[in-house]
Write a structure and sequence with these properties.
The complex is a heterotrimer of chains A (304), B (281) and C (431). By secondary structure, chain A is mainly α. Chain A is built from 13 helices and 4 strands. In chain A, the strands form 2 sheets. Chain A has a two-stranded antiparallel sheet with strand order 1-2. Chain B is an all-alpha fold and 281 residues long. Chain B has a single domain (69-274), classed as MetI-like fold, CATH 1.10.3720.10. Chain B has 12 helices and no strands. Chain B has helices at residues 2-39, 60-68, 71-102, 108-118, 126-136, 143-167, 171-179, 184-195, 197-213, 216-221, 230-235, 245-274. The longest helix of chain B is centred in the first third of the chain and has 38 residues, at 2-39. The two termini of chain B are 45 Å apart. The longest helix of chain C has 26 residues, at 199-224. In chain C, strands 7, 8, 9, 10, 11, 13 and 14 form a 7-stranded mixed β-sheet that branches. In chain C, strands 3-12-6 form a 3-stranded antiparallel β-sheet, covered by helices on one side. Helices cover 49% and strands 14% of the residues of chain C. The chains are: A mainly alpha (304), B mainly alpha (281), C alpha+beta (431). Chains A and B meet through α1, α3, α4, α5 and α6 of A and α1, α3, α4, α5 and α6 of B.
Chain lengths: 304, 281, 431
């Protein structure tokens, strides 16, 4: 085949391959790239959402660098993510392990553990507000948690969970983990089910106890799944916000602020669209940075 | 004596595991139970009556939620949106992911990273820009416009999921299909999609949940109330100041049922597809 | 090949299922609002209006108010605003809407026939969307909005719980209030609840006392930057919250409490005093009310100083504006005139338990609502002040008070913090 025909056929091939991506790409360009471009553009202006726009260059970014409320909010989101990575995923893993061996009620548990993700934030907010209510009426604790602690002999633990700056964020992180573990649970369970039963048999024949089996058979086979779950957890937890509004309204002063609540506050409370866009750009950069690092770590772990 | 100790330890372990599972189950079932309980009371008694089973059961709240919230219309709309968006996403993103995973063309890595990066950069106020765009395209206040917007929302995550699966597909399967005479599209439809069944299931569940619970974009983009999705009906019970909690709970319960059914139907596929030996991740 | 057909038919199906023609313009008025509670009454009145005049009024509801604001801004940018709508944002944003030509000037309609329409409505309510001569926004002076109800925020008191603690009448001064709170605590009743998780409500309460302590001139001077927040009078305002905290007046978790939850608490008689708006009458006593037997009353917050009169926040509740670019402008104005006429206002007041904006429509409202109505004379509202504080400074102000309440900062520290934010914002030339 001479050069020209070869080039033509490569071109045709590439075009065909590209066509596969075309529908997704075109929708993406219209609905994401275009607003994205507008957002970056807007971050260099001072604008109230209506009326004239004033060009201020990098002024929004400069102010953002010194805005300690913003960086605190990123720290808070990081804290929630940390709790999600540990508490939520360990819970999901433990449940998946337990369900892997327990054949009887497996389908029941698979259904039940997915209920929290399905619930709307309205319901979650209402329920947890009721459980964590710190007040007393007629000498009785109204909130179920305090009531429970009181009656089971731990009156010193009775607490204003959402109203105390020291416990508010942790409480929210735990509720977030409760709502989210269902996703990790399915994925980890699915991963566990693909491990060849023969590997377990072989380990038993070798005389390995359950802990050794776990470390040498289960963990290595589960590593890829665990990493996918962790990356998705990080992305999901850093962007939490509807739950926070449902539980603490506009927040416990600034102790429960996360980046997305700051962005919305900039847009709605202080009407600073340009500033909000700058915050979004910086936040996106932070997330991309985190994903990049986790991908590098996961690649390294896979080589091990 | 050794055998007895092992049996005892085995039984204890089993019991502990059951206790663990059941206690978590309790925290998960509690909201459903609480919602049902509230739905069966009235606004006056819903916070006052502390008994486990309400003294007087008002089943009427469900009927009220259905009629007052104009549920029939909104329900149908939500079903249309969910089915259309999910079908669209599954097709469009699997096509894209297949190409990004197994076919070659210039710029494919950049395109993939673009999709992934989109998951990480929130767009505040993008709704407003979208609305202006939709109006210019004469797509505002149409079902088609809303469906397109919602397809975009779930695109990145779905492409990522599909690509992860397609990457793991063994080359032999693809070669076998090619020998059988399938073109690229044939390989996609006959080999890759069945292989990625768990991914399809997760994508369907994930996006159904998103579309079913979506509200803000619908309020912004749509005007006529007969185009509105289900969450709109539920909003009506949350007045600006006074909330009718029992009717709200009845509405939320009814709204949760279809999505749980979608999950039940799909989760079989996650495990079934995987247990035939292919490796996830 | 058949795969291709399946694929295309799938996409066509999506397309067809999705296609519905956008509504054709016709000879009718479109009104967008956010008030779920009043939607039914509005629809009923719209039907009545159509029977009377033959003009079809389409009433569309877009709750909640946050989503509504976004929709209005989006529609403004896309130039598809309806004939009648509301602007829920601050006065400065309203000014931008007017300057962009999106709001019709209603002064002439109001002044027609010897100011007939204008006189029928409460002055303070009209002032909400009016701009005076020499206003700082650069808007042509005039009346731009029609209030359809009035509201104000006052302190609520539960008569049963007060008598339980041996308090014979609600407190008039702040010291009496503190004493009453301590008497309530002694019999195990929580004294005070309010939705101070919502910053605007907290801001309201704080400014009631700011007016009482230093009067309007000094407040506006502070906004202009001529007086600092570290001034002793402002420290006095901040210290009020420190005292409320120290004397155990406030309910636990008040700074994360949304107004809905605070209203729940008050309805369930978990606290003796509350602080809420006149709409709470509907929440407690209305259709599906939370506690129709709740025996309560409304009083202005007890004053702390004799220097200046205490002002409560109140004025127009909900206001509608007319789209200046609408071809049906006159019809829209006529409808709003009809909506604020006595007869319709009485219907609205009766069915939704809101205070009417029409002076003649107060007959037949409930006793508690009348107590709210008498407070209108003392009321003021940020929308009728000559200027407002920068929103970033307001946020720091409100969050600072929350900090005092949870015991993390002292009034002096908060004053310095707020002043720092103020200095930062002024240096950017934002004032």
């Amino acid at each position: 085949m001479d050069r020209k025909t070869k080039d033509a056929s490569i071109f045709k091939d590439n075009l065909q391959n590209f066509l596969f991506v075309f529908p997704a790409l075109s929708i993406f360009c219209i609905f994401y790239i275009y607003p994205f471009y507008k957002m970056i553009n807007l971050s260099f202006y001072d604008w109230r959402g209506i009326g004239p726009m004033h060009w201020i260059g990098l002024s929004n970014y400069q102010e953002l660098m010194g805005d300690h409320l913003w960086w605190d909010s990123i720290g808070h989101a990081g804290y929630i993510t940390l709790i999600a990575l540990t508490f939520q995923n360990m819970l999901a893993f433990a449940l998946a392990l337990a369900c892997d061996r327990e054949i009887r009620m497996k389908r029941f548990y698979r259904l039940v553990f997915f209920i929290p993700p399905v619930l709307s934030e309205v319901v979650v907010g209402l329920i947890w507000n009721w459980i964590l209510n710190p007040e007393m009426q007629n000498g009785q604790h109204i909130g179920m948690l305090n009531h429970f602690l009181f009656t089971t002999g731990f009156p010193q633990l009775v607490h204003d969970w959402l109203g105390d700056p020291r416990t508010a964020l942790t409480t929210i992180a735990i509720v977030h983990s409760w709502k989210g573990f269902g996703w990790g649970f399915i994925m980890l369970l699915a991963g566990l089910q693909t491990i060849d039963k023969q590997l377990y048999e072989a380990a038993k024949v070798d005389g390995a106890g359950s802990w050794k089996t776990f470390m040498n058979v289960t963990m290595p086979m589960m590593l890829p799944v665990i990493l996918v779950v962790m990356i998705l957890t990080i992305l999901g937890s850093m962007q939490v916000f509807v739950l926070i509004i449902a539980m603490v309204n506009e927040g416990l002063v600034n102790h429960t602020d996360v980046p997305v609540t700051r962005i919305f506050s900039a847009m709605q409370n202080t009407n600073r669209f340009g500033y909000a866009c700058a915050e979004a750009v910086i936040f996106g950069t932070v997330l991309i940075g985190i994903s990049f690092i986790s991908k590098k770590l996961s690649d390294k772990a896979r080589q091990v | 004596m050794k055998p007895n100790r092992y049996i005892l330890w085995g039984m204890t372990k089993s019991t502990l595991i059951h206790i663990f599972l059941l206690s978590v189950t309790l925290t998960c079932l509690f909201p459903i139970f609480w919602m049902l309980r509230c739905a069966l009371m009235t606004n006056e008694t819903v916070f006052v009556d502390h008994s486990v089973i309400p003294h007087q059961l008002h089943f009427g709240n469900f009927a009220i939620a259905w009629t007052k919230g104009n549920f029939a219309v909104y329900f149908l709309n939500s079903v249309i949106y969910t089915v259309c968006v999910v079908t669209g996403i599954v097709l469009i993103s699997s096509l894209a992911a297949y190409s990004l995973s197994r076919l070659k063309f210039p710029g494919k890595n950049i395109i993939f990273y673009m999709f992934v990066a989109a998951m990480m950069i929130p767009l505040p106020g993008s709704f407003v820009a979208l609305f202006v765009l939709m109006t210019k395209l004469h797509l505002a206040n149409t079902r088609f416009g809303y469906i397109l917007c919602m397809i975009n929302v779930g695109l990145s995550m779905s492409i990522l999921l599909f690509k992860t699966f397609f990457d793991k597909m063994p080359q032999e399967l693809e070669d076998a299909a090619r020998i059988d005479g399938c073109g690229k599209l044939g390989i996609w439809w006959n080999m890759a999609m069945p292989f990625a069944r768990p991914a399809i299931a997760v994508v369907v569940i994930f996006n159904s949940l998103n579309v079913w619970n979506e509200y803000i974009l619908a309020t912004l983009l749509l005007g006529d109330s007969n185009l509105m999705p289900l969450q709109r009906g539920i909003m009506v019970f949350q007045g600006a100041n006074s909330t009718d909690y029992p009717v709200l709970m009845a509405g939320l319960t009814m709204a949760a049922v279809p999505i749980i059914m979608v999950y039940l139907f799909m989760q079989k596929h996650i495990v079934k597809g995987l247990s035939s030996g292919e490796v996830l991740g | 090949m058949c795969k291709l057909i399946t694929l295309s038919s799938c996409l066509i199906f999506i397309f067809l299922a999705g296609c519905s023609k956008p509504p054709q313009p016709s000879n009718k008025i479109i009104l967008w609002h956010w008030m779920t509670d009043r939607n039914d009454t509005f629809q009923k009145l719209a039907q009545q209006y159509q029977q009377q005049t033959g003009i079809e009024v389409t009433i569309q509801l877009f709750p909640p108010s946050d989503a509504y604001s976004q929709k209005i801004i989006a529609a403004a940018q896309a130039n598809v605003l309806p004939d009648i709508y509301g602007i829920l944002d601050k006065k400065s944003i309203v000014a931008e809407f007017i300057k962009a030509g999106l709001v019709a000037d209603l002064t002439d309609a109001m002044n027609a026939e010897g100011e007939k329409w204008k006189d029928s409505l409460f002055d303070k309510a009209l002032a909400d969307k009016s701009f005076g001569v020499g206003n700082i926004y650069g808007v042509k002076p005039g009346i731009y909005g029609v209030p359809i109800d009035v509201t104000n925020e006052q302190m609520l008191y539960n008569k049963k719980l007060l008598s339980k603690a041996g308090i014979k009448s609600p407190p008039k001064t702040f010291d009496e209030f503190i004493k009453d709170a301590q008497m309530l605590r002694r019999v195990g009743i929580v004294p005070f609840v309010s939705g101070w998780g919502e910053l605007w409500l907290l801001d309201c309460f704080a400014f009631n006392y700011a007016f009482n302590i230093m009067g309007p001139d000094k407040i506006f001077a502070t906004f202009r930057g001529q007086v600092k927040y570290t001034d002793p009078d402002w420290i006095k305002v901040f210290s009020i919250f420190a005292e409320l905290r120290d004397k155990g007046v406030l309910i636990d978790g008040i700074v994360t409490k949304g107004n809905k939850y605070a209203e729940q608490d008050f309805a369930l008689e978990r606290a003796a005093f509350g602080f809420d708006g006149s709409w709470c009458v509907n929440v407690f006593h209305g259709n599906q009310g939370m506690n129709p037997n709740l025996d309560f009353g409304a009083i202005p917050p007890p004053f702390i100083s004799n220097a200046y009169p205490l002002r409560i926040e109140g004025g127009a509740g909900s206001t509608f504006v007319v789209n200046a670019g609408s071809p049906n402008k006159d019809k829209a104005i006529a409808f709003l005139k009809w909506l604020t006429a006595q007869e319709q206002q009485v219907v609205l007041a009766r069915e939704t338990n809101n205070l009417p904006s029409n002076k003649q429509a107060l007959l037949g409202v409930s006793e508690v609502l009348e107590e709210f109505a008498t407070g209108m004379d003392q009321s003021t509202h940020p929308n009728i002040w000559p200027l407002n504080e920068d929103p970033t400074v307001s946020e720091a102000f409100d969050k600072g008070i929350q900090d005092i309440i949870i015991g993390e900062k002292t009034p002096q520290q908060v004053a310095q913090d707020v002043q720092k934010v103020k200095d930062l914002q002024s240096s950017k030339g934002k004032l």
